[in-house]
Design brief:
This protein is of the alpha/beta class and about 280 residues long. It folds into 2 domains: about 1-90 and about 175-275, Metal-dependent hydrolases (TIM Barrel); about 95-155, DNA polymerase, domain 1. It has helices at about 20-25, 45-55, 85-110, 120-125, 130-140, 150-155, 170-180, 190-195, 200-205, 220-230, 260-275, and strands spanning about 1-5, 30-35, 55-60, 60-70, 70-80, 170, 185, 210-215, 235-240, 255-260. Strands 6-4-5-7-8-9 form a 6-stranded mixed β-sheet. Strands 3-2-1-10 form a 4-stranded mixed β-sheet. Strand 1, helix 1 and strand 2 form a beta-alpha-beta unit. Helix 1 (about 20-25) packs parallel to helix 2 (about 45-55), helix 4 (about 120-125) crosses helix 5 (about 130-140) and helix 5 (about 130-140) crosses helix 6. The radius of gyration is 18 Å and the shape is globular.
């Protein structure tokens, strides 16, 4: 039995609907799937129903963009209460920030004589958590770029003309937010963020696990983070980070972790829900 615990749908910057994603999960023989859309839990209800129809266990989740000591990192919240008021209030705020970021990107592109309209981006996104991939798709659809890669290289990567920095929440606040919603917190794709030096601080703040297995982690990178997880007594998770066809090919099926990691993750979330876990003070 295997699981993929890092997946996205069209409720953020993925292209698959929850039903399509669950169908692909069934085709790849997954026993469990987690939906981790950016700054939203809106797709979880439909994903849960879709997984049930495919006889796949579903874990609710979200992916939050955070920072600590000026370093950006992504945190995955698992098994969160989908009706938790504070969580819903905060993700709504994050979504407004995302929408404003899109508008600012469009303004910058317009100054470069690229007459893209924000409404065109929002129409393509058709969700409350739009992101750069939606801007890239709009640029291609309007004929300003020939491919998504070109859109990112010319306009949307860091320090390119259309790039706008993300407004990020404190990693410590993000961890506390997920915990109060009854969820467990995992650092996403640490091999991409390169913020290993902050892991001890995050552990003190209550970090529950590390995503050791990821589609962009090499075997040696995965081994390295497995050692870190063991050293800090952290849970081990993994996922493909599938965004549908946004990144050229569907990644679902490329990363599968043994079901035992799902069980441990659920146990930790249950402990947070029961108030049985205490964090260490952050120095």
């Amino acid at each position: 039995m295997f699981a993929d615990l890092h997946l996205h749908t069209n409720f953020s910057d993925g292209t698959y609907t929850p039903e399509e994603l669950a169908s692909h999960g069934k085709r790849h023989g997954l026993a469990a799937m987690a939906l981790t859309d950016h700054d939203t839990v809106e797709g979880c209800a439909r994903m849960g129903v879709a997984c049930e129809s495919q006889e796949i266990e579903f874990l609710s989740g979200t992916e939050l963009t955070a920072e600590v000591n000026g370093n950006e990192l992504h945190l995955l919240g698992y098994c969160v209460d989908l009706e938790n008021k504070k969580l819903l209030t905060e993700v709504a705020r994050f979504q407004a920030v995302r929408q404003n970021r899109i508008r600012e990107m469009v303004v910058r592109l317009n100054k470069m004589n690229v007459p893209l309209q924000a409404e065109a981006v929002f129409k393509i996104a058709n969700c409350r958590s739009p992101g750069r991939p939606h801007v890239a798709r709009a640029l291609v659809q309007a004929g300003f770029c020939s491919s998504l890669d070109e859109a990112f290289e010319r306009y949307l990567k860091a320090n390119r003309p259309g790039w706008v920095p993300k407004c990020k929440m404190s990693a410590f606040d993000a961890i506390a937010l997920v915990h109060q919603a009854g969820g467990a917190v995992v650092m996403a794709h640490p091999g991409l963020n390169r913020t290993d030096d902050v892991i001890p601080e995050l552990v003190q703040a209550g970090l529950d696990g590390i995503e050791c297995f990821h589609s962009k982690h090499s075997a040696s990178t995965s081994r390295y983070y497995l050692e870190i997880a063991e050293h800090h007594h952290l849970l081990v998770t993994g996922g493909s980070d599938c965004h549908g066809m946004n990144k050229g090919k569907p990644l679902i099926g490329s990363v599968k972790i043994p079901y035992q990691h799902v069980e441990k993750l659920k146990e930790r979330a249950a402990e947070w829900k029961a108030g049985a876990v205490r964090t260490q003070p952050v120095s």
